[in-house]
Amino acid sequence: MGDETVCDWVGNDPLMRAYHDKEWGNPVHDDRKLFEFLLLEFFQAGLSWSTILHKRENFSKAFDKFDYRKISLYDPAKAEELRNDAGIIRNRLKIAAAINNARLFIDIQTEFGSFDKYLWAFSGGKTICNRPEEMKDIPVTTKESDAMSKDLKKRGFKFTGSTMCYAYMQAIGMVNDHLVTCIYSNRIDCLM
């Protein structure tokens, strides 16, 4: 974490830098981790990623370490408890979406054998590398995120628009959007 060149969006926040260096763009295939990022991404809608990252531990505690099986069983009393938790984003609709999406996540696991298998089919099972030269070259949606969003919505998922899906794809390494000048731009084998 020295003076190496990294993506512009990192800024001076050590937590953002650690996230950028160790997680963003790295392929994730563990279903629990995939659910964690799904939950964090839709809670981020309308907010900065930095806000969510700084509340990540609170989210983990509030949502049973992102255990989607436990979350799928949350009742109205638990939803109310979450709405009163100042450590997370207390949006009623997003909390309801977390419970709803956990249930549907399990349905997809049952249908496909794992959420990972379902999800990575949208990128052909490989990381897509865009090799952006500047931040303005990074798309906010793609045909892959459009297809993912459409299918998730058809299955009843909430807060899964194409922009959120694209950010999710970046977070879990389905897309590598590290700038070409970033020291991490070539760390992943990519589908070109």
Structure characterization notes:
With 192 residues, the protein is mainly alpha-helical. It has a single domain (8-191), classed as Hypothetical protein, domain 2 (Endonuclease III, domain 1). The protein has ten helices and three strands; from the N terminus they run ααααααααβααββ. The protein has a three-stranded parallel beta sheet with strand order 2-1-3. Helix 2 runs antiparallel to helix 7 (92-112), helix 2 crosses helix 10 (162-171) and helix 9 (143-154) packs across helix 10. It is globular and about 50 Å long. The two termini are 28 Å apart. The mean pLDDT is 94.
Percentage of helical residues?
40-55%
Q: How many domain units?
A: 1
Distance between the termini: 28 Å
**What radius of gyration results from the CA coordinates?**
16 Å
